[in-house]
Every structure is written in C-alpha cells, then in structure tokens.
Amino acid sequence: MAMPNNRIASSGPIRIRAASEADMAAVREIYTHYVLHSLATFEETPPTLEEMLARRRASVELGLPYLVAEAGGETVGFAYAAAYRPRPAYRFTIEDSVYVANGRRGGGIGSALLGELIGVCERGPWRQMLAVVGDTANAGSIALHRRFGFELAGTLRSVGFKSGRWVDTPILQRPLGPGDSHTSGAGSL
To answer: Could you please report the per-residue DSSP string of 1-33?
Structure first.
C-alpha cells in the first residue's frame, strides 16, 4: 500500500503506508498535540498507547485502513477509517480521521493521506464516508475534505465543550464508489 506522493514535504517525499503496531507511539505523539492544544478532537485527555493500539486494531479488524505518512524517515501524519456507528444499518458508512504533525500542515501530507484513505475504502463495500470536523473554525480540515469531494451535510451546534467554550461539529459527506446509486452487494458486509 506504500504510495509515494508527488508533493514534497520539507524533509523529502511523502510516503503513505499501512500503520503497524510499531508506529503507534509516533501516532500517539501526533494525536496528543491535538488533544491538548486544539479543538480538532473533543478528547481532553491524551489516550494511552494501549488505547491507540486498540483503536488501530478495531479499524483493521473491520478491514478498514489505518495509514501513516512518512517524510525523511519520520512519521509526519496518520489517517484512518472507522465504523461510523455500531448499529448494523450503518455498516456501509464509515468516518475518516486525518492528523498531520504539528508544524507540518500545508505540505501536502493531509492530502496524500486522505487521497490514499479514500482510494482504499472505495475498493471495499462501503458507500459513504463522513468527516466529523471539530470546530467550524477548522478551515484547514474543511477545505481538505472539500478538495476530495466532501459536501457539508450539516453542522451540529454547540455539541462539545472544550477549552472553556462551546464547539460546533460540521459534518461533511462523500459517496464511495457507486455511493447509494444501487444496492448490489449490500448484503455482503
């Protein structure tokens, strides 16, 4: 699944590959920054390494991708798809998450990750991908998703409270493969 990207990060070409358990310490470090210093996630306490390993395992066990981006031998981002909801009727809908290392945004890492994530998911049985964005002011994430064909489905107002304020969550959506245009294969997941 390793795929070089044409964009150049500040420390070399971006390489996207499946994350391994060995990558999860670096993934946790990237994610911890967002937990502690942003509204991109509504978690307020950084998860343990064991929790991050369990989250990766949950995606992989469903056949969903969990990816890392490397540049110059360093992990500079990660992305994964997860089940949107546990109830069976939601089985063809997944949610994406994309995080780029602090100080590395704007170099094509997020685009490389999201592009590969969508490509892998389109080869599976899933038909809709959602992005639940933390904070309407998260213009970078919203723009990234729009570049990949996501459309704003709606905004949940003031559903989170973090850093002393109420926070919205815009929800963006894009079809995968044929989307909802037909039902063939719908019983196979």
So the answer is: --EEEEEEETTEEEEEEE--GGGHHHHHHHHHH
What's the mean pLDDT in 44-61? 98
Task: Name the residue among 170, 76, 179 with its Cα closest to residue 121.
Answer: 179
Query: Of 171, 134, 170, 172, which Cα lies nearest the Cα of 150?
Result: 172
Distance, CA of 38 to CA of 50 (rounded, Å)? 22
> In this structure, what token pair is assigned to residue 172?
């963006």
Q: Is the pTM of this model over 0.85?
A: yes
- For residue 126, give the DSSP letter: -
User: Which residues face 128 on adjacent strands?
Assistant: 93, 175
Question: How far is it, in rounded angstroms, from Cα 188 to Cα 24?
Answer: 31
Q: Are 100 and 109 in contact (CB under 8 A)?
A: yes
